[in-house]
Amino acid sequence: MRKIFHIVVFLIFFPTIGFAQDNLDISGYYKNFSVIFNPHEYNSAPDHLPGYLDQHVQGMVTNRLRITAEYQISDNIRWHGSYNFVPRVQDSSFFKQSGFAIPSVDKGRYRAYDINRKVYPYNRQSGSVGIYQNLDRAFVSLALPNADVYIGRQPIAWGSARVINPTDIIAPFTYDELDTEERTGVDAIRVRIPLGFMGEFDFGYVAGKKFVFDRSAVFARTKFYAMETDVSLLLLKFQEHLMAGADFARSLGDAGFWLEAAYVLNKPFEDFTLQNVDNYFRGSVGLDYSFSGETYGFIEYHYNDAGVKDNKDYSGILLNPPAAYEDGAVYLLGKSYLAPGISYQYTPLVTLAGQALYNTADRSMFLSPSLEYNIAQNVYFDLGAFFGIGKRAVISEALQPVLRSEFGTYPDIYYASFRLYF
Predict the structure, then answer these.
(1) CATH architecture of 2-421
(2) CA distance linking residue 328 with residue 167, whole number of Å
(3) Closest Cα to residue 334, out of 319, 355, 356, 318?
(4) pLDDT band (50, 70, 90) for residue 92
(5) Is 115 exposed, middle or buried (0-12, 13-18, 19+ CB in 10 A)?
(6) Among 164, 188, 269, 336, which has the minimal tally of Cβ within 10 Å of its Cβ?
(7) Residue pLDDT, tens place only, 94-136
(8) Closest Cα to residue 65, out of 86, 89, 34?
(9) Cβ of 247: how many Cβ atoms within 10 Å?
(10) Largest Cα–Cα distance of the chain, in whole Å?
(11) Main-chain dihedrals φ then ψ at residue 348, nearest 5 degrees
């Protein structure tokens, strides 16, 4: 089956060979990310234990070449495709687990079949070099008289919150991801029907691995404008769970306001009870404001009902993740967070920015300053970091790390990136 899928991918991604060049658009980019990870030492609790576990500075260099092609097959049919070629040089341990602080969400869980992600080495990783690939787009869009239809691998995302999107669980970004420009493509059939002024009805099917229905998602969403507010309501069946979501965005004077919320029923089709403790609520509310032509700021509050109040319970989530963390794209361990951010355009070519994620219970913070320099047209250079601030973890008698705060355990991350668009 996999060999057949590879042949189909080839036929889908290269349909433009020999076709009219006037109907073909090709674009893309090259990106380089050089990253240093500096883990914090674990302080020992008992005096006779060593002061730290095996923690050392590690590095990663990722190169990403993305080619995007679009072909206008007819007046109302358009084909879209994108392919990523990703060589990586990094500490060998990163080939087994992510070096980033926040556990990554499985971006391949909503792909029925996929090409082999690893090109080299194909079987066993023994060195520091790996070459990866990603067929990220391969879909056809149909512009019908009363609807737009999208069939194939495509991006699907929802929500107006700036930092944590409770309704965006198909292929979301985590807080510490460096490249958030393109949403990861998923295999789906989607229909969008315009309704009146600024409204639409949006529904579709997102395939899980091998089209297994209990690993897939089905959604229905409506968007409309009422009382000077953009309103979006979402009903999503994902995996074996059911989510009801709502999103509101509007202006409050010169400021912008958003409220995004989601309530998830855990396996309601099997053992639904009103007292099901595995059900959970997530919500984000915030404001943003442009102070001048150069300065923009925002603040967001996020509530995560799936998390825990006491840092002593963090390890339990990590060792035995609940359904919210395995299936619902939840990754924060606590319940209550503040996320302020600000950006300042120092010159037309230089932008300074800073953002933080603050756990209000254990008073730890993940701080991320950055600088962007527009070297030339379509050429950018970035510098940035993530700092984990808070109580450090300690080592127990059983030589296991005990978390005393969420972000105090995170490593410091320093990165530089170079981006070239064509």
Answers:
(1) Beta Barrel (2.40)
(2) 10
(3) 318
(4) confident
(5) middle
(6) 269
(7) 777 665 666 667 778 999 999 999 898 877 767 889 999 999 9
(8) 86
(9) 25
(10) 75
(11) -55, -20
Q: Residue 264's beta-bridge partner residues?
A: 243, 280
CB 329 within 8 A of CB 152: no
**Whether 246 contacts 256, CB under 8 Å:** no
Query: What are 144-187's pLDDT values in tens digits?
Result: 999 999 999 999 999 999 999 999 999 999 999 999 999 999 99
Q: Which two tokens stand for residue 85?
A: 């070629």
Distances, alpha carbon 173 to alpha carbons 145, 310, 414, in Å? 34, 26, 19
Whether the upstream peptide bond of residue 121 has omega within 30° of 0, thus cis, is yes
Distance CA(307)–CA(218), nearest Å, equals: 26
Rg (CA), the chain: 23
Q: Is 8 helix (H, G, I), strand (E, B) or coil?
A: helix
Q: Which two tokens stand for residue 113?
A: 């079949």
Q: Tell me how long the chain is.
A: 422
**Half-sphere exposure for 389 (CA within 13 Å, toward CB):** 13
Beta-carbon contacts of 196 under 8 Å, excluding residues fewer than 6 positions away, are 224
Q: How far apart are CA 113 and CA 12, in angstroms?
A: 14
Which residue from 233, 268, 264, 266 is spatially nearest to 248, judged by alpha carbons? 233
Cα–Cα distance between 24 and 78 in angstroms, integer?
Answer: 10
Handedness of CA 275, 110, 188, 32 (dihedral sign): positive
Pair 308, 319: CB distance under 8 Å: no
| Rounded Cα distance, 187 and 11, in Å | 16
In percent, how much of the chain has pLDDT > 90?
72
